[in-house]
Amino acid sequence: MPPGAWQTEWVRDYKVIVDAQMPVLDELQLLPRTTGALESVLFHTIKPSILGRAKAFGNLARTNRLMDLMVLHANGQLNSVAKISEQLRADAIAGGGYAPQVRTIADPRMYRSLTDASQLDQLLRDAGLV
Questions:
Q1: Which of 9, 26, 41, 58 sits 20 to 30 Å CA-CA off 16?
Q2: At a CB cut-off of 8 Å and minimum separation 6, what does 120 contact?
């Protein structure tokens, strides 16, 4: 690809989408217009949380749930110890006084659903994203 060609491709493929989003950004005023805020969350929250463990992740559903928890944490929705304790207590009561089993979502031996593209497609379909 010749130098400068990516700019032409970007304008052709994405400019219409970006232009359509600008009125929404102008109206809300609170949304960041750069990736700086996202990069900060990735660097300060997610990276330290998975550092040293990322290569061990293999199960797509469990990894997805971990990322959901990180999103909740980044949005300040896991800051109430009382609410978290209340939910854990309710789960234990529903389980006859016991916490749910740790590995209720498991892959068959040696299979890593996280690296299986068809599993990702299914996860997206189940979530209604495709």
A1: 41
A2: 60
| HSE (side-chain half, CA atoms, 13 Å) at 112 | 6
Residue located via tokens 């299986």? 116
Q: CA-CA distance, 77 to 2, in Å (whole number)?
A: 46
Q: Where are the alpha helices (DSSP H) in 29-94?
A: 36-41, 47-50, 60-74, 81-94
In whole angstroms, give the CA distance from residue 17 to residue 28. Answer: 18
* Residue of higher predicted confidence among 8 and 87: 87
| Nearest by Cα to 46 from 75, 22, 24, 20 | 75
Calculate ∠ Cα 115-119-125, nearest 5°.
140
SS3 percent helix, strand, coil of the chain, rounded to 5, is 65, 0, 35
Residue 130 pLDDT > 80, yes or no?
no
Res 119: pLDDT: 82
Domain borders along the chain are 58-126
